[in-house]
What we know:
Number of strands: 10
Mean pLDDT: 93
Low-confidence stretches: 5-14
Amino acid sequence: MLTALGTVLALLLLPVLGGAAALRWEYAGDPAADARTRGKDAIWLGHAWVDGRRTPEELTALAAKVRSTGIHDLYVHTGPLAHDGSLDPALAPGAADFLARAHAAMPGVRVQSWLGDVVAPEKEGLHLDRPDARDRITGAARQILDLGFDGVHFDLEPVHSGSAGFLALLDQVHALTAARSVPLSIAAPQIDPVPGLGRVAFALSGHGKYWSAAYFAAAAGRVDQVAVMSYDTSMPVESLYGGYVARQTSLALAHTPPGVDLLMGLPAYWADTPTHRGAAETVRAAVRGARLALGPNGRRNFGLALYVDFAATPDHWEAYRDGWCN
């Protein structure tokens, strides 16, 4: 009885141990000396920048932080979108003023409007399969571009792998942004670490956490910039998290079209939950993992993106600068 039970447990543990060993191997070695910032980095900024809560002094401090880095894009939260896809202009009364001040304080840095909402059918939210909802989202994108934003950044979650409605939305909005000569970017989920894992995870949990590599490529091919949300991974220790980011970076590099900017997200926040172990998911480990995967003479239109400004500590900024910018 004990022998049979032990055999079953061993069979269950072997894939887990094998996966952990593979991730630890991904994190081994030294990053290439030239795997450093290409001046294509970004940071997600909270809603307080456009609703009047942030002061001019705080913008000056942000500009000083950005100046010593490779940050080229600010994703500024100007939503959320309503569940029907529309955008209430009253949500961002200070947007025009922020844009003017940000452009003056950080010349050459693009300020993109971060628009998000939860997505049906998993959540009670946007129905991307409905043409009227996609039309209203496109109208919201036009609305923020008319305000003077330098691009549109979508963070719509959870978009299930295979969603035709999301791809149709990207086609529709990309036609608008291309006509305005500004970028369309998206925050993308992680890619299946193992082919088929996303389908299994969805069958067990009902949560669309991963995109297949093919669907990631289809979405990335419809935008100008994709930022992978390479955090909330449930990794228990720093070395495994760094190896996981290296794996995600390798997958994203392989499936992002050459002309599309690829960014990997950095967890500049603290949480201690089943999906995010603060001591494991560090900026330091994410930077090192991304550099290991990038390798020598790697992709030039590649960057890292800090999530999120209002939770980022001096240690987060230092780990990003020292590991990636210096």
